[in-house]
Amino acid sequence: MGYSVIHVSDVPPSAAGHPASSPWDRRLNAALGVEAFGLYHVDLPAGAETVPHDHCTDGVEDAYVLVRGSGWLVVDGTAVELVPGSAAAVTPEATRSIRAAGDGCAFIAVCA
Predict the structure, then answer these.
(1) What is the rounded CA–CA span in Å between residue 69 and residue 46?
(2) Closest CA to 93 of 67, 64, 57
(3) How many Cβ atoms sit within 10 Å of the Cβ of residue 26?
(4) Tens digit of pLDDT for each residue in 10-26?
(5) Among candidates 74, 85, 53, which has minimal Cα distance to 38?
(6) What pLDDT score was predicted for residue 21?
(7) Which pLDDT belongs to residue 19?
(8) What span, in angstroms and rounded, lies between the C-alpha atoms of 24 and 27?
(9) Distances, alpha carbon 14 to alpha carbons 7, 9, 20, 84, 98, in Å
(10) For residue 35, with 0-12 CB atoms within 10 Å meaning exposed, 13-18 middle and 19 or more buried, which class applies?
(11) Which of 11, 24, 35, 52 has the fewest CB atoms inside 10 Å of its own CB, making it the most exposed?
(12) What are the angstrom distances between the C-alpha of 78 and each of 29, 83, 99, 106?
C-alpha cells in the first residue's frame, strides 16, 4: 500500500521510546509505518512542560507546529511565545522544551 491513515487518538500516549519523551507524547511512526524520521503528536495539559533536551550526540533537528492552545518554546533559557499556526525549528546543540500556557497546547513534532 502506498499510504497510511490513522487517527491520532488511536495511538496511546507514552513516555517510552525516546529519552526526552513525556507522558503526553503519541509517537506516530509505528502506526503510520514511518521509519525515516520521528513524528509525534503531543497534547500538553495546562502548565505542563516537555523534558528539556538537546541533540548534541545524535545531530537531530526538531521542528514543531502548534495546532491548539498556546505556550512557549524554551530554547537555551529563552521563551518564545507559540500560538496556533506557529512553526519553529531548533538546531541540535540548543536545549529545548515546550511549556503549555493555562489553556494547554497540542503540537506536532518532527525529529530528523
Answers:
(1) 9
(2) 57
(3) 19
(4) 999 998 767 788 899 99
(5) 53
(6) 85
(7) 73
(8) 10
(9) 16, 12, 11, 24, 17
(10) exposed
(11) 35
(12) 30, 16, 12, 20
d(CA 52, CA 111): 15
Going by C-alpha positions, the residue among 43, 7, 47 that lies closest to residue 23 is 43
DSSP element (H, E) containing 62? strand 62-75
Structure confidence at residue 20 (pLDDT): 81
**φ/ψ of residue 9, rounded to 5:** -65, -15
18, containing H or E segment: none
Separation of alpha carbons 26 and 64, rounded Å = 14
C-alpha closest to that of 31 among 9, 4, 13: 4
